Amino acid sequence: MPDSNKFNLNDTIAILTRTPVALNALLRGLPEVWTHDNEGEKTWSVFDVVGHLIFGERTDWITRAQIILQHGEERPFDPFDRFAQFKESQGKSLEQLLDEFAQLRKQNVTALRAMNLQPKDLKRRGTHPELGPVTLEQLLATWAAHDLTHLHQISRVMAHQYRDAVGPWTEYLGVMQCGGHSGPKKTKAA
Amino acid sequence: MPDSNKFNLNDTIAILTRTPVALNALLRGLPEVWTHDNEGEKTWSVFDVVGHLIFGERTDWITRAQIILQHGEERPFDPFDRFAQFKESQGKSLEQLLDEFAQLRKQNVTALRAMNLQPKDLKRRGTHPELGPVTLEQLLATWAAHDLTHLHQISRVMAHQYRDAVGPWTEYLGVMQCGGHSGPKKTKAA
Q1: Which of B21, B152, B158 best tests the A interface by mutation, with the highest count of A CBs <10 A?
Q2: What pTM, to 2 d.p., does this model score?
């Protein structure tokens, strides 16, 4: 393993436990211009992103970790539905979604800790339906990085609402130039 | 004014008041891999970014708003030092910086509210040393968007630490492809 792999289970849990608290502090009670507007057709609002994070807690991370531990590479993960939140979040408020995310994340971190994973467990492999072989360690690293990619997206979607309001300053604001989610990759399942 | 300008003073204050709380929730107590590592030579760590936000509170936003209100376009703003934090933050902990940022932001939002700005005030113009004429409204919009560009940067710098740990998932994570801060623009003053 190259030195550039900085994975550490406690460092990972440090992100996983903070994300719901940080999103709550950033988003609860915000005017809807920040939470319900998006970046244009077929893009996600902050509300959509939080729904997506919830669906990940329900169906992705811990479920896949259990598949790796129980079945190894023999049983591929179920594909993740990146659009489930458009149905699942209907009729809910952002505040309800934030509560739901916080509760599910807490349960899942408890489940992760209860696995009492050892270094050899982290090297166990599973099969991603598109990416092929992946390790449990990579799955857990991705869980934390997935929080960060959506915090990155949330800050960009919010900044987009002021793209015109900032006038000439737009060229100094890196977030207005971010193409991090553009291209065909954004349509793939996580 | 085009409809695409969504500026609203209360919406702006809603961001300004939340940023220090959100950063505190996200960052306080994190292992140093997340807060003190950067993206490579001449890039900023999360610690550097928080120091930069502090320096903005001290010298940029409210100071420039006062210059616009008192002198209009006649007196250009002083250039902003984007590298001041490398000296100013020396010897401090991230927790100290978070406290300092929260306190300064609170004072500055109080000062902003005390200005009791009316629509005609928001259209008043000042002179940016590089960008030329700007309005008070654009300055205030940029204050909020500047918070968001650095939240965007912080999430990217943090995700970068797991660039190798996530293995093949890197292609699904938009944050790993973000070039939002690259190019010559990043060297300019805000």
Answers
A1: B152
A2: 0.94
